[in-house]
Amino acid sequence: ETGLIYINANEMAWIMKMLPRKPAVLTPENHKQAGERLFMQNCMSCHGAHFEGSGNNPSLKNIKATSNHTEVIDLLNSGRRLMPAFKQLSEEERNAIATFVLQEKSEYNKPFVPTTKKIDSVDIMPYKIAGYTKFLSSDGSPAISPPWGTLNAIDLNTGEFVWKVPLGQDPKLTARGIPATGTENYGGPVVTAGGILFIAATKDAMLRAFNKRNGKLLWEYKLPAAAFATPSIYELNNKQYLVIACGGGKLGSRSGDSYVAFALPSKDK
User: Fold this and answer.
1) Bridge partners, 18 (sequence order)
2) What's the CA angle centered on 136, arms 168 and 67, to 5 degrees?
3) Does the structure show a pLDDT above 80 at 122?
């Protein structure tokens, strides 16, 4: 109807460090050695070279206190959230990764013999990535000028921005009297026929409504946990609803397990 597209965006700088890659191993090694090699190949880009985590991927430094060998294997088999399953790895390879991550010394610290002499194309690359690291200032904020997250309306006919507003606010900056900076955000917007744009996506756990024509903030609501998801709008019995999943868990926010639904009051009440 309007020829506009609505997009939330991140303005973030990342550091990607390259490390020399070791040649493929075709000789016997123990499980911890094999696990380290396989971790570097399959896991380091997300969880960091020293288990420190990177981007939205969690640190594994405390995994010994929270998980056992079987639980790590189950996670490698099934994946979770942003983490894919690693079913392409053999059972022995998954055991080796678990042994390395948990720094185990007993049952699985036995000889590991590679099951194939095929050298994967990834093994002949001279470098590997050490992980995605955010470029941050000493207080943990992005080390570039804000806004760090924006909501934008773009005219599809001209490519021009119709409006742009910051999306999200860091509570610790708000407490210092700093105007809205916008924050890193994940999850998209939805737009109603009546001209309202709804979006969550930010770690401050707010659901916001904007005027789609000019970007003016009309309403906001504190959710039980951050909603890194796109809202869903539907109609039932001539009544319009909006529902959003509040899973949290990213950007240092606490995890949640709620779906929250909204609707306008019925006309007969």
Assistant:
1) 129
2) 85
3) no
